[in-house]
Amino acid sequence: MRRDSKLSGVLHVLLHMAEAPGPMTSEALGKVMQTNPVVIRRIMAGLRAQGMVRSEKGHGGGWTISCDFTAVTLRDIYEALGSPGIFAMGNRSESPGCLVEAAVNAALDGAFDEAEALLLARFGEVTLATLSQDFHARMQARGQDCGAQAAHA
């Protein structure tokens, strides 16, 4: 089963950008994320459309954060990514002809709905600033200086 790690990846990118002294290019972010710069540009386009990041072309250009880290939550980022499915599990058939399968679907649907609501509520409580503070605390606990390069040292 393949896991969708886009949210995790975007949060990773945003925290690196917050530590950078200036704009970061798609190439630099691609190296941090060990992925192709095209993937970075595709992901960042959705965040740009929501006003969370901006990009400048040309020499000295790149991606910068344009949102308030204390106000933007994980849920905001999740929604900017198009609200991807949270669970890889699902019903075998959405329109079962079997009453047994209908009963199973009803039980699973209720559980999935409750779990998704709980997770999205938690996402709404965690800001980007919270993640940044946690990163800084982890770096200090290691006795290291914070910074984009130090994070992967």
TrEMBL record:
GO cellular component: cytosol
Superkingdom assignment: Bacteria
InterPro entries documented for this protein: Tscrpt_reg_Rrf2, WH-like_DNA-bd_sf, WH_DNA-bd_sf
Sample GO molecular function, one term: DNA-binding transcription factor activity
PANTHER family: HTH-TYPE TRANSCRIPTIONAL REGULATOR YWGB-RELATED, WINGED HELIX-TURN-HELIX TRANSCRIPTIONAL REGULATOR, RRF2 FAMILY
UniProt protein name: HTH-type transcriptional regulator YwnA
Originating organism: Achromobacter agilis
Taxonomic lineage: Bacteria, Pseudomonadati, Pseudomonadota, Betaproteobacteria, Burkholderiales
